[in-house]
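Problem: given the chain below (205 residues), write out its structure.
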Amino acid sequence: MSRIRKLQTVTELTALVLFTVLLITGRIQEWMGIFLGSVVLTLFFGRFYCGWICPINTVMRLVTGIKARFKLRSFAVPEALKKPVFRYGMLAAFILAFVLTMVSGKRLPVLPILFAAGVLLTVFFPEVLWHRYLCPIGTILRLPGAKAKRQLRIDPEICSDCGICQTVCPGGAITANGGYSINKSLCLNGRDCADQSPNQAIRYR
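Solution.
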């Protein structure tokens, strides 16, 4: 395991513990402060919140690892769920829930519901269903992610066009139109692609 991957793992687990503590102590709404700060930083560093901090993603990766260990297959993502209406519908419900929370003063369990939904869906479907097509947090981060100054990039001079990066990407961010490239708005900065690249053709810069 590389030093970067070790640092990423420590960051993920620390964030998961913090999320759990806030949930148990009834202060889960405070997590939104971390998320809002990450929105701004995404403009400079890409969607590192998704790949390095998000507790939903951390547990989803664990579920995916367990499925791989026991050779459990995932169902294909239904074409109907790939339509933008579902993604924006989730975003609208997410925003509405927080508006109602602020107006009514009642704490709606929005984040715990999202956590449960993401993890449960990953039991049956590949991670890309949640990351690319349903997650409202990911939808919000798409815009600043597209403008990020730094990101994971594929060096076409080194890339062997093996396609491994596209296969392992949990966010469906890698396309192969005339050579492989990474869509900044979709990239989770999870580094699965960089770790699996046989020629180390993918670097964060």
